Amino acid sequence: MPTTTGASSLRGKITVQKRQSLVRQVAILTASVSLIALAPAYQASAQQTAQAASADSSSELEEIVVTARRREEKIQTVPLAITAFTQTDIEKQHIQQVSDLTKQVPSLAVMTNTSDTLGSHAFTISLRGLPGTVAYFADVPLGGPNTEAYGFSNGLYYDLDNLEVINGPQGTLFGKNSIGGLISIEPKHPMNDFEGYVKATFGNYGDREFEGAVNIPIVQDKVLLRIAGQSQQRDGYTKDLSNGKDLDNRNYFSWRVGLTLRPTDDFENYFLYDGYWQDSNGGSTIVRYVNPGAVLSQISLPILGKVPLTLGQGLPISALENPATAGATFGELFAIKAAGGTPSLAFYPQIASLAAEQQALGVRTELGNSDHQDIAKYYYYGFTDVATWDVNDNLTIKNIAAARFYKQVYSSDFVPLGVPIEIINFSPNGGWNTNDGRFTEEFQVQGKALDGKLNWVAGGYLEYDGPVGSTLEGGNTLGSLNYTAYRNSDRSQAVFAHGVYDLSDSVVDGLRLTAGYRYTWDYVSDEETGTTTVPYVTRNAAGAPTNCQSALGIDNNCFSGVSQHFSAYGWNVGLDEQLTPDVLIYLRSGNAYRPGGVTLNAPPDISHFQPEHVTDVELGEKADFTLWGIKSRVNADIYHTDYKSIQESGFFTTPLPNGSLYTGQYTVNAATATVNGAEFKGDFLPVENVTISPHFSYTDGHYSKFPPGIAYTASPPFGLPRTQWGVTGSYHVPWDSSLGSLDIAATYSWTGAQLYDLQANPLVTKIPSFSLLNLRVDWTNVFEQPIDVAFFMTNALDTTYATGGVPLYGFLGVDGFSYGEPRMFGFSVKYRFGGPSEESPEPAAYTPPPAVAPAPAMAPRSYLVFFDFNKSDLTPQAQTIVNQAAANAGPAKVTQLTVTGHTDTVGSDAYNMRLSRRRAESVAAQLEKDGIASSEIQIVAKGKRDLLVPTADGVKEPQNRRVQIVYDGGPTS
């Protein structure tokens, strides 16, 4: 059924003199901050192009629609730094996990850390040098306690409607606060056509991938079903020498079932069940540096007093613990002290030789530990329900409810040198290490007010994270076994409001004000019950240290727990000005916070840490233009960020009842910092069939201060490369279309050095810079059949590069690297079946009819406005027709104009309905600029329905990709 709505985002008239004056003021402002000195050139170029009779300055630049502000908007009109991907982009750029996005997204940095623990899941994500990036799937934040990385894993990047990366603090529009930015992943929704695809991929390292989807319209327009799935099995590229297993392998399966119900035209309910299963050997860690003299603790001995206990320097502590050798060992220690030396004991005197052996093996072989089992098994699944009620043209109520569950069982050797230094074991009773759930509820009310000039959204958010089953985790630190049952619970509540107000009538045409506010309450709790075979520090109800020592198992008397409440506000405000239809400039500022937390087993004064706070200012521009005959799109911004109460790790020591010391790690609000940066992303069409898409980012971060007693390195960019850039070049082979479509692409990316350990470590603190080259060939619609064939090669130069580290230098005297994939290559075949394919060849452009001359009395009743394929921007010819329709409305005494949008038959009903609405709104906006009151304009969106229209000879012919303006109500109309 067609939908009807009042005209939206329509602007009134303003004098040319006032507009030109304000445009000059804005141009001077932007030039003064050295970002958009070219904006006037873009504007002039766009105006010259619009005046050309056959101009189409952006006709070959794709119109991208995003939902970064919780409603559909063209990306070039949204005052945010956004990088968006369609499913076709994801396939052509071979995006399989979040690290692949760094080759296309400015300021996005990804480091793997403690990679054995979660295998391919363990990522540290930062945007603009700030942590805490949140991933959303179907409008729901992913992750849970200890599982935030799930939102960036494999098994997500298939059968999508879109994927968006938004840079900068996000605190007033999405469910969770995010100080650096967010990643939004939207699965493809059910459609009205029976259609689907199957895809198979084969490559080196035994790679086998299968993927498919089927869309079933059970009841046309009313009950729609879509089922999709993906699996991959691939051998690992790192060998564990101790047991012969291959690490860094892949073995997973992902699935989705989506159901859309539309009982009435104004109500829709979308239900999604999705899941992920992985059973692999985990990732690898290659030890790069060992400090045998690292002092880990000290013990008190008779006569000798306190003796340092080191990683590998001194006599073996095992000899002192063995009754048969204890006397002789004590005698040697006494002799050393008597001679004026410093006696010491070592856990592993052979550690230096083991480290040398690992270095000789290289980065694709891990020395390993025969006593350690390699396992990384995960089961994630969730239920999401999104209910949307269009109460009327100006009010929509939306509810997003979800329940997600995370189960993990893993085993990790952080220092695989043949001896147990730091190991997390899988559950000894065969259960899950992690067995958590996340329950979220977000209620939104969206609307328009003040004659369509104000778009607003308000609502509330509630989240609870906690265990849904038993958890038991074993560990082995320096040969001491321990088992722990833990319970982590978090709760978050928030209210928010956000609005965009069009200031065209009161200030200047195209100027908009954005403002939003959010207040959040957070509660965190961490508890554990456990026991060890050596003294283990916990605290009783009075806060006093308690020595727990018993047989293996769980001792309920050995309990530790701590909790804390936090709350904070967030806000954003901004101004943006649409200088021309193709040039946008904006100035925005935002504030967001990252919740605090707690540290178990730490002294009371450091048992919790406060939230982080970020406030930024960003100035940016978005422009489509033609310069020297080159069609171009340039989006750029500069920003300044104040980063306060930064959460960093430190180490503490606590005396135990037996006189020894317990050393632990805690989190502290360590510093304040500033981050300044610049970002650039462009698309250029220098010659026919060639597209060049570069991106660049520069980030400069500096710490301002640190608390006493914590030694940090100076001025790190928080794990983000100071400089990061890449370029993708693609060539469309101009051969006979009967053969299909052939595209060749290459992506070269460069990532600067990344600091991964902020603890003072003079030898190993940075991941070295590296560059990668990826190649791809896509042959689509092979011989005009619904078949696509592709060849891909990632890391074509077989570069050896580190992707992250295990920063245990300050704790255990050891550092290690995780390394990226070697050269990977393969072929894929995809078969599409059923309804219209979105990859169908682009239909030939329509030639619009000539403009109708003005008539003083009888004006034409109907006007047809034509659009380019998949576009909603007015072409110069279309603008002429709209202007003429507005000019003739007065003499015809029109009291109402009906503006109806249509599209092609290519694509889903939902997509085409949205596209037809945007086309109608573009026409309505131009009519208002020409003096037609918004109250006299009615918008109707029909998508791909009613494609036939009667022509002059009375015969109905197909004329889609159009908007029809019809006069109504006047005596002569």
Describe the structure.
With 973 residues, this protein is mostly beta strands. 12% of the residues lie in helices and 50% in strands. The protein folds into 3 domains: 3-11 and 842-968, 60s Ribosomal Protein L30, Chain: A, CATH 3.30.1330; 187-290 and 359-834, Beta Barrel (Maltoporin, Chain A), CATH 2.40.170.20; 295-358, no CATH class. The strands form 11 sheets. The protein has a 24-stranded antiparallel β-sheet that branches. The longest helix has 21 residues, at 909-929. The chain is elongated. Mean pLDDT is 81; it is low at 1-59, 115-121, 145-149, 532-545, 549-554 and 837-859.
Enumerate how many helices there are, as a single number: 11
State the major sheet: 24 strands, antiparallel
> What is CATH's topology name of the largest domain?
Maltoporin, Chain A
Low-confidence stretches: 1-59, 115-121, 145-149, 532-545, 549-554, 837-859
Report the average pLDDT across residues: 81
The gross shape turns out to be elongated
Percent range of helical residues: 10-25%
Structural class category: mainly beta
Strand elements, count: 56
- For CATH, the homologous superfamily of the largest domain is named as TonB-dependent receptor, beta-barrel domain
Cα separation of the termini: 27 Å
Q: How many separate domains make up the residues?
A: 3
Q: In percent, how much strand structure appears in the residues?
A: over 45%
CATH architecture of the largest domain: Beta Barrel
- Gyration radius from CA atoms, angstroms: 31 Å
CATH top-level class of the largest domain: Mainly Beta
